[in-house]
Amino acid sequence: MPSTVASPQIPPAHSLARRLARLRVPLGFAFGAVVLLLARPNWRTLAFGGLVALTGESLRIWAAGHVQKGREVTASGPYRWLGHPLYLGSTVVGIGLAVAAGSLIVAVLVAVYLSMTMTAAIRSEEAELRARFGEQYAAYREGRAAPVARAFSVERAWRNREQRTVAGLLTGWGLLALKAALGL
Predict the structure, then answer these.
(1) Engineered SS bond to 133: which of 55, 57, 111, 137, CB 3.0-4.6 Å?
(2) Calpha distance 159→137 (Å, rounded)
């Protein structure tokens, strides 16, 4: 006889957020291809956008070197002041690449992509962290967690696979630079 134990119902909004959060990387590649086609970069937009993106990636590296993703709630490094420094860094990287692309339509597409996927990722991650860490995460989000004196670790950033984000940023910027050099 089949079991009649009811499984917990996931609210539709949370389910959609979780799906969007999971799809943000493949969607990023699809958006990236469209962005590359529509981009009109020049050396000035590349330089300024590159500096903005570098600022975002620096924040990401700093954050990745302070957290053990999925295993803890930390109040170390940028997590002392920011709730989601990795997502903020990703957003700044995206803005930088939009500036580097030198196209208003690209800026709109990037804004739509970032607002949808980052919001979904944050909601999904917060739900997981609340479920996994309970009061510890609540204290962190409410600013009641004590700051942690932990040194930045390149090894921790590497374990968090931040080198993939660096490679993606360099590839995106390099393709935009190639497009500018070829006058496409």
Answers:
(1) 137
(2) 22
Contact 88, 82 (CB under 8 A): yes
The per-residue pLDDT for range 22-47, each reduced to its tens digit, is: 888 788 889 889 999 999 999 999 99
The CB density around residue 34, as the number of other CB atoms within 10 Å, is 13
Instruction: Judge whether 7 lies within some domain.
Output: no
131 contacts: CB under 8 Å, gap ≥ 6: none
Q: Is the pTM of this model over 0.70?
A: yes
Tokens of 9: 């119902």
Q: Which domain holds residue 88?
A: 14-182
Q: What span, in angstroms and rounded, lies between the C-alpha atoms of 184 and 179?
A: 5
Total structural domains within the chain:
1
How far apart (Å, rounded) are the C-alpha atoms in residues 41 and 102?
5
Tell me the residue length of the chain: 184
Rounded CA-CA distance 119/137 in Å is 18
Domain assignment of residue 6, yes or no: no
124 Cβ contact list (under 8 Å, min separation 6): 14, 17, 18, 20, 21, 22
Say if 55 falls within a structural domain.
yes
Cα–Cα dist 123/120, whole Å: 5
